[in-house]
Amino acid sequence: MGAAFFPLLFFTAVWGAVGIGMPIMTPKGPHQNLIRCILMLTAACCWLFWLCCYMAQMNPLIGPRLKRHALAMIAKSWGNKLVEG
């Protein structure tokens, strides 16, 4: 199970627009450079956080814990026999 191309492209474009496009549109003033820096850092951190969460779903460390009754119902509905062991 690998990464899908569309979500990676979409969220990279969204955070790229925030980090590149928004600083261009900042109003003139004494704090323009600070606002630009904040926007670029926000975009970089949010994109990195999203990427880490997205990649963590590809190989989860902890799987779901199902009760025996739930496993029996799933096995029955899928037409499989529940193996003891």
From TrEMBL:
Compartments it resides in: Endomembrane system; Membrane
Annotated GO MF terms: proton-transporting ATPase activity, rotational mechanism
Lineage: superkingdom: Eukaryota
Keywords for this protein: Hydrogen ion transport, Ion transport, Membrane, Transmembrane, Transmembrane helix, Transport
Species annotation: Drosophila grimshawi
Pfam families attached to this UniProt entry: ATP_synt_H
Record-level GO cellular component terms: endomembrane system; plasma membrane proton-transporting V-type ATPase complex; proton-transporting V-type ATPase, V0 domain
Function: Subunit of the V0 complex of vacuolar(H+)-ATPase (V-ATPase), a multisubunit enzyme composed of a peripheral complex (V1) that hydrolyzes ATP and a membrane integral complex (V0) that translocates protons. V-ATPase is responsible for acidifying and maintaining the pH of intracellular compartments and in some cell types, is targeted to the plasma membrane, where it is responsible for acidifying the extracellular environment.
Name of the protein: V-type proton ATPase subunit
Topology in membrane: Multi-pass membrane protein
Family the UniProt entry places it in: Belongs to the V-ATPase e1/e2 subunit family.
Gene coding for it: Dgri\GH15937
Subunit structure: V-ATPase is a heteromultimeric enzyme made up of two complexes: the ATP-hydrolytic V1 complex and the proton translocation V0 complex.
Positions of transmembrane segments: 6-25, 37-57
